[in-house]
Specification:
Blueprint lengths: L2 H16 L18 H13 L11 H8 L5 H13 L3 E4 L3 H4 L22 E4 L6 E6 L4 E5 L8 E3 L7 H11 L4 E5 L3 H13 L9 E5 L19 H6 L4 H12 L8 H10 L10
Parallel strand pairs: 3-7, 6-7
Antiparallel strand pairs: 1-2, 2-5, 3-4
Helix pairs in contact: 1-9, 1-10, 6-7, 9-10
The chain binds zinc ion.
Length: about 280
């Protein structure tokens, strides 16, 4: 968990409180091999250390494994995949990463090959057509309409290892948990468009009831996006080096603007939201 995650959490908490929504803690673990218990524990430790509230979802690592892990919802993902398959909206692809290297978009190599979807080691791709128009609702009530990015042409919905891909599992989870507000970084805008496209193919079009807020990303001093791989400071590091929760919030506020000050998630979110005037539809 790094500073960027906390900025996102603070905004989520503030927007949820503002719209009378409850906050759901969601942790994706479909990449099971990459999930370590220590990462999981870090999520709970960090939320507790920074006093970030949530109303629903796992209370600890054990509760997560037993009741919220994505592995428990795999049948749900496969139902969604089967429904797409039954309607001939998918095709199997055996292109290797190497074969696709250098292409900005999937070149359609396997689109008409009629490969057996049940063969081992094939991914399933959704037929997107040529940059279809998709739309989603924003938190302020406006509608964003855009073409599906070229990079999302025939995007993968089932991976070669047979697991549901992120776009599919994410949409299925949002439906399962009846999510109605999604707060995420602008780096996930293309995913929102892919998920909106996928949703439009589902008989229940689940995302038609969902509003989105895409927030700017917190950048490091070199102007790059914060992520673990870029060697950003983890909350765990700051905590073990004597930073208080208030000091962590202030550090994040100063990344947004050197003149900002914050000592809590409420103040951090307020810093951002007042500099970024927009209205939200308040629920009754
Ligand atoms: Zn292919």
């Amino acid at each position: 968990m790094h500073l960027g995650n906390i900025f996102s959490f603070a905004l989520t908490a503030a927007l949820a409180r503002h719209t009378n929504a409850s906050i759901f803690l969601r942790i994706d673990d479909l990449d099971h091999e990459r999930v370590q218990t220590s990462y999981l524990q870090d999520v709970f430790d960090t939320l507790a250390f920074l006093s970030i509230p949530y109303d629903e979802g796992p209370r600890d690592a054990g509760d997560f494994q037993n009741h919220f892990s994505q592995l428990l919802r795999e049948p749900l993902y496969h139902q969604r995949l089967q429904s797409l398959r039954d309607r001939h909206l998918l095709f199997a692809c055996n292109c290797s990463r190497k074969q696709l290297a250098g292409y900005e978009a999937y070149p359609g190599t396997c689109r008409h090959k009629n490969l057996d979807p049940d063969a081992p080691n094939v991914a399933w791709r959704i037929v997107t057509g040529d940059q279809p128009v998709v739309s989603f609702h924003n938190i302020d009530g406006s509608l964003t309409t855009a073409t599906l990015p070229v990079a999302m042409t025939d995007f993968i919905v089932r991976r070669r290892d047979g697991k549901a891909a992120y776009q599919l599992s994410s949409l299925a989870d949002d439906t399962f948990y009846q999510t109605d507000l999604i707060v995420r970084g602008q780096d996930l805008l293309d995913s929102t468009l892919a998920q909106s496209f996928l949703s439009s193919l589902m008989p229940d079009h689940p995302l038609q009831h969902v509003s989105f807020f895409h927030h700017p990303l917190l950048l490091n001093s070199e102007g790059e996006k914060l992520s673990k791989s870029a060697g950003s400071i983890s909350i765990q590091y700051l905590r073990t080096h004597g930073y208080s929760a208030a000091a962590v919030y202030d550090l994040i506020a100063k990344r947004i603007h050197p003149g900002f000050e914050a000592g809590s998630w409420q103040e951090l979110a307020a810093c951002f939201l007042k500099s970024h005037s927009f209205q939200t539809r308040k629920k009754p």
